[in-house]
Design a protein that fits this description.
Blueprint lengths: L5 H7 L6 H20 L5 E7 L18 H7 L3 E7 L5 H10 L3 H4 L17 H4 L5 E6 L2 H9 L6 E2 L13 H4 L4 H13 L12 H17 L10 E2 L2 E2 L2 H14 L4 E7 L36 H31 L6 E6 L5 E3 L2 E3 L7 H4 L3 E4 L7 E8 L3 H8 L26 E6 L12 E7 L2 E7 L6 E6 L15 H18 L7
Helix pairs in contact: 3-12, 11-12
C-alpha cells in the first residue's frame, strides 16, 4: 500500500463517510502525521506582510522621523535588504509577484482585484514547497483574499478575512464562496453605484440594520482608544492587536514545519493610529517639494505634508505592534527554528500632488519596500546593498527547502541565502498596468527598470508619444533630477533594453 503525505491525508478527511466508526483510527493517523511533521528538521517560514509599507518612510532606511524603532531592533538579528523593489504600485501585482516569483507581465494580476493566470494556481509558494509543510494564510486585504481564494487548494488553513474583524459589509463570500471574486465585484459595483442590493444577493435589510447598530456600538466603545476612528477599509473594521494576538497563538501551536502567510492592512489608509501615537510627529518638518511630471495630481503640498504626517503616525503604531509580536515570538523560542520574512506589497506616495498609490507612477515611495529576513537563530545583522525584487522571494524559499527552481521563475535566489552576489548589470522591474486588458499585450502601462542605482521609467500608451524619466538613485534618492536628457548615451542604451524586454514579454499576446 502506497503512503500518502500528511497534507493529502488531511484533505481527504472530509470525504470519509464513516468517520464516526473510523474516528479512533483517523485520530491515531493524524497524531502520527503531526508527530512526524513536528520532528522534521525543516525550518518554519513566517511571512509578515504589512500593506502599503514604504521603505522611504522607515527610520531603519534613513527616514527623518523615528517611525520604526522596533523594526530596527528586529534588523539587528536579521538580513536587511536596502534596494528591494515591489512588483507594482498596488496590492494585486505586488503580492502576486511575491507569491509566484514572476513579474506582472507574466502572472497577469494587473488590475484591481486582479487574479493570476490559471497556470499560476499551481505556480506559487503554497503549491511548490515540500508536502510536509503545513500551510496557513490570512489577510485583512480583500484583494489578497481573492488571490488566496485561488490558492486555497494548497492551504491547510485558509482563514477568512471577516474572522479577525469587528464588522464588515461583505456578503459575496457568504453566498458565493466558490465564485468569490466575481461575486465580490458584482457586490462592489452595486454598492459603489448607489444601487439598492437585490434581496436575492444580499442579506436582509433587517440584518443590515442590526450590523449597522453593532458597528456604531464598537465605534463608540473604542472612540477613546482610537480618536481618529477604528482601523478600517471599505466598511471592514478591525483591530491590528487582534490579528497580532491570533498570529502569535497560531505560530506557537501549528504543526511543524509550517508556512504562515499573514498580510495585514496597516499602515494602509485611512491612517487611524491608537491614541498614544496621535500627533507624535508635530515637528514642522517640510520634505522637499518635487517636480510635477507625468501623472502629477493637484493636491497642494501643505495637504500632502499633513497626510504624510498622519501616515507616519500610523506607521509608528504598526511598528509597535510588530515589535510586540516579535518579542513574544522570541520569548517562545520561535526565532530559533523559523525564517521570519518582513516585507510589504507596495508603498505610499506624498509628492508631486499625489497622495496614495492608485496612480500611474512608479516613484520610490511606491516601489522601494522593506525586506528583512531573520534566519533561524540569527544573532547579528547582515546588510545587502544589491538590487533585489519581490520576485526573488519564491526562488529563495525553494532553494532553502531543497526544491528545484522552475524555469518560468523570473526572480533569483537572494544574496546571502545561497544566491550569488547580484551582478550590477542585473535588470529588475516594477509594473503598473491597471488599464491594460489582462490577456493582451502591454500597450498602456508604466514600467520601471532598475540597473543597480540607475532607474528608468517608461510611460507608454497614455499619450501619442512615450514619456521617460531616469534617475541616479545613489546621487538623487528623492528623484528630484530627471537625467534622461542629460545622460543621452546611457538613456538610449537602457531604453533599448527596456524596449526589447517589453517586446519579448508581449510575444504571447501579439497578433501577427
Amino acid at each position: 500500500m502506497s503512503k500518502i503525505d500528511r497534507r493529502t491525508f488531511l484533505k481527504l478527511l472530509p470525504t470519509v463517510p464513516f468517520y464516526k466508526v473510523a474516528w479512533p483510527y483517523v485520530e491515531t493517523a493524524v497524531h502520527a502525521a503531526r508527530t512526524q511533521a513536528q520532528s522534521s528538521d525543516r525550518p518554519n517560514i513566517l511571512f509578515l506582510v504589512f500593506d502599503t509599507l514604504s521603505a522611504q518612510h522607515m527610520s531603519l532606511y534613513g527616514y527623518n522621523r523615528e517611525t520604526t524603532p522596533n523594526i530596527a531592533r528586529f534588523a539587528e538579528k536579521s538580513t536587511v535588504f536596502h534596494k528591494h523593489v515591489a512588483g507594482g504600485n498596488f496590492t494585486s501585482p505586488g503580492t502576486s509577484s511575491l507569491m509566484t516569483g514572476t513579474y506582472a507581465w507574466s502572472h497577469r494580476a494587473i488590475q484591481l482585484h486582479g487574479l493570476v493566470r490559471d497556470e499560476y494556481i499551481q505556480r506559487n509558494m503554497f503549491s511548490l514547497l515540500p508536502d510536509d509543510y503545513y500551510r496557513v494564510a490570512y489577510s485583512h486585504n480583500l484583494l489578497v483574499m481573492s488571490l488566496l481564494h485561488q490558492f486555497r487548494g494548497d492551504l491547510d488553513l485558509f482563514k477568512h478575512t471577516r474572522e479577525l474583524c469587528l464588522a464588515d459589509g461583505q456578503f459575496a463570500d457568504r453566498l458565493f464562496f466558490e465564485d468569490y471574486t466575481t461575486a465580490f465585484w458584482a457586490e462592489s459595483t452595486a454598492l459603489v453605484g448607489g444601487a439598492t442590493p437585490p434581496s436575492a444577493l444580499f442579506l436582509s435589510l433587517l440584518d443590515r440594520f442590526a450590523r449597522s447598530l453593532e458597528s456604531r456600538s464598537f465605534k463608540n466603545e473604542l472612540s477613546d482608544l482610537y480618536p481618529r476612528g477604528v482601523p478600517n477599509l471599505h466598511n471592514l473594521f478591525f483591530l491590528l492587536e487582534d490579528a497580532i494576538d491570533w498570529i502569535e497563538d497560531q505560530v506557537v501551536s501549528l504543526p511543524q514545519p509550517f508556512l504562515g502567510y499573514f498580510h495585514l492592512l496597516p499602515p494602509h489608509e485611512p491612517y487611524t493610529p491608537r491614541k498614544e501615537f496621535v500627533d507624535i510627529f508635530t515637528d514642522n518638518w517640510q520634505p522637499p517639494e518635487k517636480p510635477k511630471l507625468f501623472g502629477a495630481q493637484p493636491m497642494p503640498q501643505a495637504n500632502l505634508n499633513r497626510e504624510r504626517r498622519l501616515y507616519d503616525e500610523y506607521l509608528a503604531f504598526t511598528d509597535a505592534e510588530i515589535g510586540r509580536l516579535l518579542d513574544n515570538l522570541e520569548q517562545q523560542g520561535i526565532l530559533d527554528n523559523t525564517y521570519i520574512i518582513l516585507t510589504s506589497d507596495h508603498g505610499e506616495l506624498f509628492e508631486r500632488g499625489i497622495r496614495g498609490h492608485v496612480t500611474l507612477t512608479l516613484y520610490e515611495g511606491l516601489t522601494h519596500i522593506p525586506l528583512m529576513i531573520h534566519k533561524p537563530g540569527q544573532q547579528s545583522r547582515e546588510d545587502v546593498f544589491q538590487r533585489t525584487t519581490a520576485a526573488d522571494i519564491l526562488p529563495t524559499l525553494l532553494h532553502l527547502t531543497g526544491q528545484p527552481i522552475p524555469e518560468w521563475v523570473e526572480g533569483a535566489v537572494l544574496p546571502t541565502f545561497g544566491g550569488a552576489t547580484a551582478p550590477t548589470d542585473r535588470m529588475v522591474y516594477s509594473i503598473e498596468a491597471k488599464s491594460n486588458p489582462k490577456y493582451a499585450a502591454l500597450t498602456e502601462a508604466t514600467v520601471a527598470q532598475y540597473q543597480d542605482d540607475i532607474k528608468l521609467i517608461r510611460y507608454f500608451g497614455y499619450n501619442a508619444d512615450d514619456s521617460f524619466e531616469m534617475y541616479n538613485l545613489k546621487d538623487d534618492p528623492e528623484e528630484l533630477n530627471n537625467i534622461y536628457e542629460s545622460e543621452k548615451g546611457l538613456a538610449e542604451e537602457l531604453t533599448a533594453v527596456l524596449h526589447d524586454k517589453i517586446f519579448a514579454v508581449n510575444a504571447p499576446y501579439r497578433r501577427e
